[in-house]
Design goal:
- There is one protein chain.
- 26% of the residues lie in helices and 24% in strands.
- The chain has 403 residues and is of the alpha/beta class.
- It folds into three domains: 170 residues, Thiolase/Chalcone synthase (Peroxisomal Thiolase, Chain A, domain 1, 3-Layer(aba) Sandwich); 127 residues, 3-Layer(aba) Sandwich (Peroxisomal Thiolase, Chain A, domain 1); 29 residues, no CATH class.
- The strands form six sheets. It has a five-stranded mixed sheet with strand order 3-9-8-6-7, with helices on both faces. The protein has a five-stranded mixed sheet with strand order 10-18-17-15-16, with helices on both faces.
- Strand 15, helix 8 and strand 16 form a beta-alpha-beta unit.
- The radius of gyration is 22 Å and the shape is globular.
- It starts with 23 loop residues before the first strand and ends with a strand.
- This is beta-ketoacyl-[acyl-carrier-protein] synthase III.
Length: 403
């Protein structure tokens, strides 16, 4: 029987789900299957709890049940040309480079300006990922645009597909999950590949939160920047599978701590009460600036993110010592340090580019990953624990292999 993370387990494991019907389904912690995947079972070592040496995912204690694999084969990123330093911000709000860097680890951020657009950044990042993967745009089967700040109310993904010149009109749609969006995009890509006939899925994480920042609020304006990052997820045989496990959650009760809610335009009275129905037509609406309770978000992140990564590692059947790199959403250096300490992952194995870009929301993980790959840090075969967390509240992690 397969558990919720898509790995074959014995009946003695407490997490086993009983009475699963013969079908393929997706649960928050991974892939669940029954009859359809029964022909491919990988039985692995059970040395993980015996103080063994560092294990590779293929040597983990849990047998893995996968009919079709997926792997990350290309990455790309793009940032706006305008750089805004802490000193620049100190000229418009009461702050300083020291105050910001000590509390957040951020020194610079990039902000959309002039002819920049989120769509153009996303297209640039996507093209770089395709070039690295040596995949033609016409071979793309799906474009997933992970963003909370699309440049069209109905989504930006189709415009990216158009700009890339995909002649076969592949499906393209947006995923909205704030700073967790890219991790959800990776899992969604894997679902499309494993559960369907998709071969090449382009996953883009991109956000322009600068458009929703109150630049007079030093509690939020110091944090955010704009960027785009992309990876190509490609189908492969089960032996090469590069997504070992994941763990995804949301808690709407935490929305009050981090949001940009819709609000009515009080100046637009339209027909007012002279309409045929009271309060109709409705007043035009827009979104408020980002509202955040920094202390509560910090507490949420340092509590939930390590737990999520530990759950994903458990479902993948590998110890944290097998992780080559920890790659978290780049929100605050204190959060990154707290999570790495909890997981006992040394700083030299933590990827961080927060100082240069700030919090770029859904773009932060693919942006940092692309820099690490192109800089020679992350190499083919390396195992990465990635985790996103943010508004919603949403959070999730994935254990994956590069290349």
């Amino acid at each position: 029987m397969a558990n919720a993370s898509g790995f074959f387990t014995s009946p003695t494991v407490p997490r086993v789900r009983r009475n699963i019907q013969p079908s393929i389904g997706i649960y928050r912690s991974g892939f669940c299957s029954s009859d359809g995947f029964s022909k491919r079972v990988f039985f692995c070592s059970n040395a993980i709890n015996q103080g063994a040496e560092k294990l590779s995912p293929s040597e983990s204690r849990l047998p893995r049940l996968v009919s079709k694999g997926c792997k990350l084969v290309g990455s790309g990123s793009a940032v706006p040309t305008l750089k805004v330093s802490n000193d620049d911000l100190s000229k418009i709000v009461e702050t300083s480079d020291e105050w910001i860097s000590v509390r957040t680890g951020i020194r610079n951020r990039r902000v959309l300006s002039g002819k920049d657009s989120l769509t153009s950044l996303s297209v640039e990042a996507a093209r770089k990922a395709l070039e690295m993967a040596q995949v033609d745009p016409d071979d793309i089967d799906l474009v997933l645009m992970c963003t909370s700040t699309p440049e069209d109310l109905f989504g930006s993904a189709p415009q990216i597909q158009k700009a890339l010149g995909c002649k076969r009109n592949p499906l393209a749609y947006d995923i909205t999950a704030a700073c967790s969006g890219f991790v959800l995009g990776l899992v969604s890509a894997a679902c499309h590949i494993r559960g369907g006939d998709f071969k090449n899925v382009l996953v883009i994480g991109a956000d322009a939160l600068s458009r929703y920042v109150d630049w007079t609020d030093r509690g939020t304006c110091i944090l955010f920047g704009d960027a785009a990052g992309a990876v190509l997820v490609q189908a492969c045989n089960s032996e090469e599978d590069g997504l070992f496990g994941f763990d995804l959650h949301s808690d709407g009760d935490g929305q009050r701590h981090l949001n940009a809610s819709i609000k009515e335009n009080e100046m637009d009275h339209a027909l007012g009460t002279n309409g045929s129905v009271l309060d109709f037509p409705p007043r035009r609406s827009n979104y408020s600036c980002i509202q955040m309770n920094g202390k509560e978000v910090f507490r949420f992140a340092v509590r939930c993110v390590p737990q999520s990564i530990e759950s994903a590692l458990e479902r993948a059947g590998i110890p944290s010592s097998s992780i080559d790199w920890l790659l978290l959403h780049q929100a605050n250096q204190r959060i990154i340090d707290a999570v790495s300490t909890r997981l006992e992952i040394p700083q030299e194995r933590v990827i961080s580019n927060l100082a240069n870009y700030g919090n770029t929301s859904a773009a932060s993980i693919p942006l940092a990953l692309d820099e690490a790959v192109r800089g020679g840090k992350v190499k083919a075969g390396h195992t990465i624990a990635a985790a996103g967390f943010g508004a919603g509240l949403t959070w999730g992690s994935a254990i994956l292999r590069w290349g």
